[in-house]
Each structure stands twice: as C-alpha cells, then as structure tokens.
Design goal:
The protein has 12 helices and 20 strands. The protein has 418 residues and is an alpha+beta fold. Strand 18, helix 9 and strand 19 form a beta-alpha-beta unit. Helix 7 packs antiparallel against helix 8. The longest helix is centred in the last third of the chain and has 21 residues.
C-alpha cells in the first residue's frame, strides 16, 4: 500500500518507492477547445509556469518564486488553473482557497500583499483577445466543489499598452489606484515628468543637511543584512501605525515569515530580485542610524516598491524617505529599468513622483449559489470603500476604529500598506 505526504512545495511524494510523482490534476473541463486542469500543488507546473512568467507584461506577484513563500507559510489549499489549447499551455491562474464568513474564495496566491496582479498568459493567447464567456464558464466549472467564488483583486484591465485577457470578467473598480514613474531616455527627461527643477533643488537641500551632520550612504543590503533590515522595517512601521492610530497589516507572524522567505528567493538573472532591502544609513554625528528603509522587487524592466518606512526621530528635516527614493530611482534608471512602480495606495509622496495613475479592478467569477450572493456583497463593499475614501475624515475615523478593535490582520487593501 502506497502512502503519500506533501513536501514543502506541495509536490506529492510517493514514500513507498522514493519516487516523486505529480499529483493528478482534477479531471479536465473542455469548453470551446480550451482544456482546464486544476492542480492542488505548484511543483508539477514549475517548468511551464517559469516559461510564461518571462513575459514582461506578467506581474512579479504571479511569478513562481513570489508565490512559493506564501504557500509554504500560510498553507492555504491551492486551486491552480491551467488552460491549454491544442496541447499548449495558454494560461495559469495561481489561486489559493481562503475560507471566511461561510464562503470559500479563490484568490491569487499572496494577494493580500500584492500591488498588481495579471495572471500568466502565453503571448499567443494574449494576442487572441479576452477570455470568452464559454471559457470563463469552463473555469467556473473546474472550481466547482473547491470554491464558491473567484475574486481576482488588483487587476489592471489595461497595462503597459496591452489589454488584459481577463478584461471580459465581471469587474468592480478597486477603491485604490496604483502610481508609476516611467523612465525615459535620460534621467533628466524622466525627472521632467515631475518637475525636474524642484526635484533637483530638494535633493541638494536634503544632501546638504545630512552632509553637515557627517554624511550618509545608500545601502543595498547584502544577503546577510537583508533580514535585519526587514525587521527594522517592521519596527519602524509598527511605530508609525501606532502613532497614526492605524492597524498594522504587517504585525502577524505568518506575514513576517513569508516576507523573510521572499528575501531568500532572490533571482540570479541580471538585476532581477524577488525582494531586496534598500536603506539610507547616516554617518558622522548619527553614525549607523537608518532613517529610511524600502523593499524593492524587480522583474525584467518593471520595479515595484513593495513597502517603505521612515524613522523621524532624527534628521526628519532632511525627508530621508524622499531622499532614499531619489537614490533608488537614479540607480535603477542607470541599470535599464523602464518603470518604477510605487504600488497601490494614494499618498501625496506618490503623486509627487508619478505622472501615471493606473486604475485596477477586482474581477469576480461566481461558482456556486453562495458565490453569486458573495459577488453582490463584494461589489457593494468595494463601492462603499470607494465612497468612504472620498471623505478623508470618515476614512481616518474608520481606520482608527479598526486599530482599536484589533483588526490589523484585515486585508491590506488601503493606503496603510505603504
């Protein structure tokens, strides 16, 4: 009798023979020449997954190395959708099942801390247009018994000149926008999009303040420094959230563990990095003090600032967070990046840097009767959040109420993630 166990990546291991076997996917659903398979682990799809993620239009948040740490840490059941046409992989939707309030939701893996989601599509399928109604029905049929509804959050229907194949799905506009700075031929031209003269004047002013105190250095963490800087971010952010009376979306142990795991899955190709810590470190009078920390991810020519924090106990007058952004952006322009993405969440410093504002949508695929009801509720909740954010005082009051009630583990769908 053969027994099976799950290894850390979710691959079935046939322990009686020592042979590693991929678990059989759910029986295929065939509609409109599209074959849908559902997998409960990542490893069987690794080769085709990594091939699809090479497309620059695919978000880093659907890359294999981004998803693994969330799966290893949270261990939600998986329902990874693979669509095939004529025997060739057309797309992969890496979904996990999250239970709450009596409903099973299929969401992108790690979506709580994603800035942009796209799914993974072959170039051939992408150019063929959007998912048809028949194909969407096939995905819903494949999820039956596993989920009540699929909610694909933070999906831009248009991204970098292309139209998402998911754009045909039922959608509600997400209450938050994402903000980007495109890089032009020269750093000076890039700055002109956001008032180059004012930016340079501010940079010189900040540098003079810190030089008078002994100077500073821009740090890209070495492998043995990454975890220390991430822990410092958690501390700085906790202080800021507490001072503002906001819930701390990074406070729970599993989230911190997943982010630490991401640091150890850095890509080795070129400049790519799944998660990399950057910091501003002072010299002289405040030797060793770190007033600003940021975490960047890079996939191809797209760089995302996943999160950032500041410590205003020293040199607040130098705006160390702004200075760190200048140093990171300047370096990344030299290294051939095409876009610096400040991520989701509307904040003043983002608008000061970004001429591009990207609207994102939450896409809904009801599966069961409960899922259809959940879709109505989800649309209402999202629209209510949008309306509330139109009244800053009301929004701030609700955020502080959440903090007092200890609901800091709620989804990071608002500005407090930054």
């Amino acid at each position: 009798m053969q027994t099976q166990e799950q290894d850390i990546a979710g691959t079935a291991v046939a322990s009686a023979t020592g042979r590693r076997d991929a678990p059989a996917p759910t029986p295929p659903v065939l509609r409109d020449d599209l074959r849908i398979d559902v997998f409960d682990s990542m490893a069987p799809l690794e080769a085709e997954w990594r091939a699809l993620e090479q497309d620059n239009l695919t978000s880093l948040h659907q890359s294999y190395d981004w998803c693994v740490p969330w799966v290893e840490t949270f261990r939600h059941p998986l329902a990874i959708i693979r669509g095939s046409l004529s025997g060739r992989t057309a797309f992969i939707l890496p979904l996990e099942i999250i239970r709450g309030r009596g409903v099973r939701r299929a969401e992108f893996i790690g979506a709580r801390h994603s800035n942009i989601n796209t799914g993974l599509f072959s170039a051939e399928f992408r150019t063929s247009g959007e998912l048809t109604a028949v194909q969407v029905a096939a995905i819903a049929a494949a999820l039956r018994g596993k989920a009540d509804i699929a909610i694909l959050r933070n999906v831009p229907l248009g991204w970098r000149g292309g139209r998402s194949p998911l754009a045909s799905l039922s959608a509600v506009e997400n209450q938050n926008r994402a903000f980007q700075l495109p890089f032009l031929d020269s750093f000076e031209l890039s700055l002109k999009q956001v008032n180059a003269k004012r930016r340079r004047k501010k940079f010189k002013h900040q540098s003079r303040i810190l030089d008078a105190k002994g100077g500073y250095e821009y740090v890209i963490a070495a492998p043995d420094q990454q975890d220390t800087l991430l822990d410092l971010f958690f501390h700085q952010k906790a202080v800021r959230f507490k001072e503002a009376g906001l819930p701390d979306v990074f406070a729970d142990d599993p989230t911190q563990a997943a982010l630490h795991r991401l640091l150890r899955r850095r890509a080795n190709d070129g400049f790519d990095a799944t998660l990399q810590m950057h910091a501003l470190r002072l010299k002289g009078e405040h030797e060793g003090h770190i007033p600003a920390v940021a975490a960047l991810s890079r996939k191809g020519d797209h760089v995302i600032c996943q999160f950032a924090s500041i410590d205003e106990s020293l040199v607040a007058e130098a705006s160390p967070g702004e200075l760190l952004f200048w140093l990171m952006i300047e370096r990344l322009h030299r290294e051939g990046a095409a876009i610096f993405d400040f991520g989701i969440g509307d904040q003043t410093y983002k608008r000061s840097w970004c001429p591009v504002e990207t609207t994102q949508h939450d896409l809904l695929i009801p599966v069961s009767t409960a899922g259809h009801a959940a879709a109505v509720i989800q649309r209402s909740i999202t629209r209510a959040k949008t309306a509330i954010k139109g009244y800053p005082q009301l929004y701030t009051f609700i955020q502080r109420l959440r903090a007092l009630q200890g609901t800091g583990s709620a989804p990071a769908d608002d500005n407090e993630k930054d």
